[in-house]
Amino acid sequence: MPVLFEHLPELWQGLIVTVQLTAASFAGAAVLGMLVCALRVSPVGVLRAIGTAYVETFQNLPLLVLLVLAFFGLPEIGLQAPPLATAIIVIAVYEAAYIAEALRSGVNSVSKGQGEAARAIGLTFGQSLRHVILPQALRTVVQPLGNIFIATAMNTALAAAVGVVDLTAAAHRVNLVEAQPIPIFVGAGVAYALIASVAGFVTGRLERRLVILR
User: Fold this and answer.
1) pLDDT of residue 95
2) How far is CA 194 from CA 13, 53, 91, 183, in A?
3) Kindly report the CA angle at 104 between 100 and 108, in degrees rounded to 5?
4) What pLDDT band is residue 17 in, cutting at 50, 70 and 90?
5) DSSP one-letter string for the chain
6) Is-contact 85 123, C-beta < 8 A?
């Protein structure tokens, strides 16, 4: 496909942006997701309600709507950031709801005796969660977290609709010049598939290794 090689620099730069967007968004979502998970399993009813409201809200809103609101709504109230940074924040906030639920399922899989033992030796709820419960829970949700990472990579394509020049946007720009959508977007699709394949391979290896250590 000669057209791909002719425009390789633009497509490569778009791929780099996609990888950066995916990695940064997932990292932010992981941190926020842990905090939301802690709220969801908290013994305090108000905190549980806040965590539940967060998850229910963001799992029932389209990501594209959130991106559009952030890009065009926030500047109206004086809040503005570069497109890439805004996309990272919005995607992280969105994906955090899914990570929180994955982690909560892992927490629920840990026997209650573990938490009781942690409290028996004087650990607070936060210390028990951080040092005893979450490390064990993470081992059981490696595959779901890997799936969320892949979903995050796919969802970054929506950032092209609000001005981020990622792989999808780069492919669209090349297509406007060359008018050859099939080879251009097939090439972009293959790149996304490679990202997903690498993530799946790493997740599988990590899951097997952690299962052996248990």
Assistant:
1) 96
2) 16, 35, 21, 16
3) 175
4) very high
5) -HHHHHTHHHHHHHHHHHHHHHHHHHHHHHHHHHHHHHHHT-SSHHHHHHHHHHHHHHHTS-HHHHHHHHHHHGGGGT----HHHHHHHHHHHHHHHHHHHHHHHHHHHS-HHHHHHHHHTT--HHHHIIIIIHHHHHHHSHHHHHHHHHHHHHHGGGGGGGT---HHHHHHHHHHHH--HHHHHHHHHHHHHHHHHHHHHHHHHHHHHHHHH-
6) no
Among 120-124, 158-162, 183-187, the minimum mean pLDDT is found in: 120-124
Q: How confident is the model at residue 213 (pLDDT cuts 50, 70, 90)?
A: very low
**Dihedral of alpha carbons 114, 117, 123, 125, sign:** positive
pTM over 0.90: no
Residue type, 149: F
Do residues 199 and 150 touch, judged by C-beta distance below 8 A?
yes
Residues shown for the chain: 214
Q: How far apart, in whole angstroms, are the C-alpha atoms of residue 167 and residue 22?
A: 12
pLDDT greater at residue 53 or residue 212: 53
